[in-house]
Amino acid sequence: MAFSFSVETTKVTDQPLIEHLLDIAFGIDRRVKTSYRLREGSQPAEGLSLVVRDTDVSVAGSISFWPLTIGPAGAPALLLGPLVVHPERQNIGVGLALMQEGLARAKARGHGFVILVGDAPYYARVGFQRLPEGQLILPGPVDPDRFLYVELLQGALAEAQGLVLPPHRFAEISARDLMPLAVPHQAERQKQSAESQ
């Protein structure tokens, strides 16, 4: 039986259905994976959370892209995932359509490159390839053969080097590292003054 479908922007009302589909496809233990750490406390990139709806199964598939900040220079990137397709709608092109539309929208919005952790042959269909080993570091274990990227703007990857973080974690670490060390707290200044007398 042939199915026709279209990729649409996710609505707030889709979220419970998407979470249920993710539980079916990947199990509730998916949240302990390294890639989930990069999504904690963040929201998907604007306009880059997509869905394929279906009257029989509600949500046939879903994809999201998440903002990232990389290395001391704060190079921007996107994380693809999770990509999920309903078990009853697999092998009919839903996942491919979601990836193609998502990457096209990301490129149109000026994003430079996308990373993910996943099956290389599957994602190679839309241009993903293995990252140069050691160039990017995730905050947790990852199989280097499954650590992939695709450039949307030529040369964008070359600008990124180092630890990959969600923007809010990068901001927290940067703010902490940039706190002035030479200006003591008022109580500390008084203590230092008393000790010097």
Structural write-up:
This protein is an alpha+beta fold and 197 residues long. The relative contact order is 0.15. The protein contains 6 helices and 10 strands. Strands 1, 2, 3, 4, 5, 6, 7, 8, 9 and 10 form a 10-stranded mixed beta sheet that branches. β3 (58-70) and β4 (75-80) form a beta hairpin. The protein has helices spanning 15-26, 34-37, 94-108, 120-123, 167-178, 186-196; strands at 7-9, 49-54, 58-70, 75-80, 84-85, 113-117, 129-130, 136-137, 147-151, 162-165. The protein has a single domain (7-196), classed as Aminopeptidase (3-Layer(aba) Sandwich), CATH 3.40.630.
Question: Can you give me a brief rundown of this structure?
Answer:
The chain contains six helices and ten strands, in the order βααββββαβαββββαα. It is an alpha+beta fold and 197 residues long.
CATH superfamily: Gcn5-related N-acetyltransferase (GNAT)
Elements, N to C (H/E):
EHHEEEEHEHEEEEHH
Q: How many strands appear in the DSSP assignment?
A: 10
- Sum up the overall morphology in one term: globular
**Which class best fits the helix and strand makeup?**
alpha+beta
Query: What is the CA-CA span between the terminal residues?
Result: 89 Å
Please identify, by name, the CATH architecture.
3-Layer(aba) Sandwich
CATH class: Alpha Beta
CATH level 3 topology: Aminopeptidase
Task: Describe the oligomeric state of these chains in a short phrase.
Answer: single chain
Radius of gyration of CA atoms, rounded to a whole number: 21 Å
Instruction: Write down the overall mean pLDDT.
Output: 87
Quote the beta fraction: 15-25%
- Structurally, the number of domains stands at 1
Low-confidence stretches: 178-197
Helix content: 25-40%
> How would a textbook summarize the main sheet?
10 strands, mixed
Q: How many helix segments? A: 6
